Amino acid sequence: MSEPDSIRKRRLREFLDRVWSAGEGDAADEYLAESYTIHNDPGDPWEGRTLSREGFRERLTASRAAAPDQKFDPVRMVESGDTIAVAWRWSGTHTGPAPGLPPPTGRALAMTGATFYFFDGDDRLTGHWQIADRLGIYRQITG
After folding, report:
1. What is the rounded CA–CA span in Å between residue 84 and residue 139?
2. Could you give the CA distance from residue 5 to residue 79 in angstroms, rounded to a whole number?
3. How far apart are CA 31 and CA 52, in angstroms?
4. Tens-level pLDDT at each residue, the chain (143 residues)
5. Edge to edge, what strands does the sheet with 71-80 contain?
6. How far apart are alpha carbons 21 and 28 in whole angstroms?
């Protein structure tokens, strides 16, 4: 029998569903601390930056532009202290523009990755450390 999700796991699932999959930018404020640091995320223009909630919403809008129908599906979550590691699957359709990518192709896209999300004492997200198969996405678009 599996253990029920912790408060942080439930909040993180909601965050991925509402904010990243559904694009509810205003909902991000419910989940984020005052600042959010992208510790590691190769290929993300915001890598290494600390963002305000407003800055995070701007990043969300820009990041979702190429595939506004995107969906994150958490495959596995492991919690330790103030950190939750998530292995995930992502899918979307290349229907919008994005810097560094060719014009929209209409192609279905998919990738996998893993993200470590960090929380503060109020169960709000303070940042992440991520690896994702962005090269695979580029190949799917240009192939």
Report:
1. 30
2. 10
3. 13
4. 566 789 999 999 999 999 999 999 999 999 999 999 999 999 899 999 999 999 999 999 999 999 999 999 999 999 999 999 999 999 999 999 987 889 999 999 999 999 999 999 999 999 999 999 999 999 999 98
5. 50-52, 32-40, 125-132, 108-119, 83-93, 71-80
6. 12
Q: Which two tokens stand for residue 33?
A: 């601390």
**Could you tell me how many helices (H) and strands (E) the chain has, helices first?**
4, 6
> What are the distances in angstroms from CA 100 to CA 61, 68, 103, 131, 137?
16, 17, 10, 19, 12
Domains of the chain by start residue, with CATH: 7-142 (3.10.450.50)
Whether the pTM exceeds 0.70: the reply is yes
Which of 116, 125, 112 has its CA nearest to residue 50? 125
- Stated length of the chain: 143
